[in-house]
Amino acid sequence: MKEIFVRLDRCVGCRQCEISCALVHSGSRDIHKAVWERPLPRQRVRVTRERGEYYPLRCFHCEDAPCVEACISGAMRLDEDVGTVVNDHERCVGCWMCVMVCPYGSIQTHEGQKVALKCDRCPDEEEPACVRDCPTGALLVKERALVV
Amino acid sequence: MKHVIIGGSAAGTSAADTLRRLDPRCEITIISDETRPFYSRCLTSYYIAGKIDEHDMLLREPGFYEAHRLDLIMGRTAVSVDPKKRAVVLDDGREIPYGRLLLATGGRAKVPDIPGADRHGVFTLRTWDDAVAIARKAKTARKAVVVGGGLIGMKAASALRDAGLEVRVVVASGRVLSQMLDEAAAAVARGLLEAHGFAIDTRCDVVEVEGDGEVRCVRLKDGRRVDADLVIIGKGVDPEVDLAKSCGARVGRGVIVDEHLETSVPGVYAAGDVAEAYDIACGEMRVNAMWTAATAQGKVVARNMAGIPTRYPGSVGMNSIDICGVPFISMGVTSPGRAEDGNGYIEVTRRRGSTWYRKVVLRDGVICGAVFAGAVDRAGVVLALIRARASRDDAPERILADDFTYATFMDVIDDKDRYFQEGGKRNVQRIMQGGY
User: Fold this and answer.
1) Between chains, do A99 and B377 touch, taking CB under 8 Å as contact?
2) What is the number of domains present in chain B?
3) What is the pLDDT of residues B288-319, one digit of tens each?
4) DSSP-assigned letters across all residues of B152-203
5) ipTM of the prediction
6) Which residues on B lie below 8 Å from A92 (Cβ)?
7) Would you say the pTM of this structure is higher than 0.90?
8) Domain with B27 in it: what CATH number?
9) What does the alpha-carbon distance between residue B157 and residue B173 come to, in Å, rounded to a whole number?
């Protein structure tokens, strides 16, 4: 099972992952067109600076996820085969219970669409967009078993 | 081992799910007094509002019970429990023996003693059947009165407004959502509701429901008569404790459970809206009737029933509601009273514009509650601080400035409380260690 890992010492806070994430989740997937989409495509990874260090924060896809526990609509589910927690936008009613319980603050409200936004680890891509485009190698995908 | 679960909603189903994962061979029987398999009570108002279809309330695929070999008995009420014989008696006389028993009986909508409350067109909102009946009535009704300004009352009121009715909310206390929100946030909510055409009467009550067979109007405490052809009573929920009493379990407001969610009767457990368990924010036993607590307790209780001792860390009372498109979240202690009353609480608040409001409550420097209105992103980080009983001098300031992330507080957010979670904890180490 694959997971995204972060090498904090390599993150320089360039925010390329944010742009790539928003773009891959846009309608057109073309940066020149995506900027005109409304609502604006939103990134699900956020780079934040704390104590002089950069942290690219995103969903950790917890095995025992509080957001799945809290979900009242059955939208938030753990896909056990892939090891991801994904939100089904068709079922999501925008109650924000998941936002209320995620200890990592990794789920965002999307007021315009009334759905909760989070990392889906780019199921249709060969590699998650944030990892693919990270210029310093701070984000990388590895087999889970190799790291524990 | 034969496990019997009374109640097929969030706590019961989550327990059954977990039991099956832990032990592929055990026998699991679920007894439900409803006639539908596991569905979401929390979605009933969305259905009434017309935002989802009836079948969208179902939370499991057809075939779920067969696939997991869960023996589901629907439409039957358990009338008593004999802990000596270790058997549950059903209303059709059947006796179901158990090795371990879970009481996940939930709650029952309170119906105050109002003359005329039995007329057609007066409803409570808890079950699927309630929702279907209300939705049907709402098709022809024009004016609704909602009695009670709590979470259920407000969700029902919003749903009926969305369904096109005129809605009046009659609230006994001085503000809407008085259990969930503090005064300032409740004022924001009220302002929004009134701007969107809701009529709200606080410090008021319905004293009589008038009409012939059907409801025609309600009489209020101040003497006014208000036309209504649909009345919803949202005066709260009582834990369904009768069965627990019948087997001699200790009962307070709910069924009192220890840190393994076992009742005072060995082999009998309780979880969900019926259970009175430890509340981390107040530091006392409380019934926290919430979906998320029910699911979490279901998982923990299943482990204990399967013979894997697992401590339940406790819940934090919390909720999330949308009022006219503005999100509200509250958690823990939200209205502790003034610090000069000597109760050790400090409240810090910030207001930004007409619908943005935030509050953090501290007790002896430890964060024990928060209210968010207008912007709720990353509220879960604050919940994690409450659960960790965290204390950091800059925390209130950072939270109010909306200038915080998980990274801000990761030194004080401790995941050890996430009982059997492995993913989260490992991830924390991973992000902190960096390279490998």
Assistant:
1) yes
2) 3
3) 999 999 999 999 999 999 999 999 999 999 99
4) HHHHHHHHHHHTT-EEEEE-SSSSTTTTTS-HHHHHHHHHHHHHTT-EEE-S
5) 0.96
6) none
7) yes
8) 3.50.50.60
9) 17
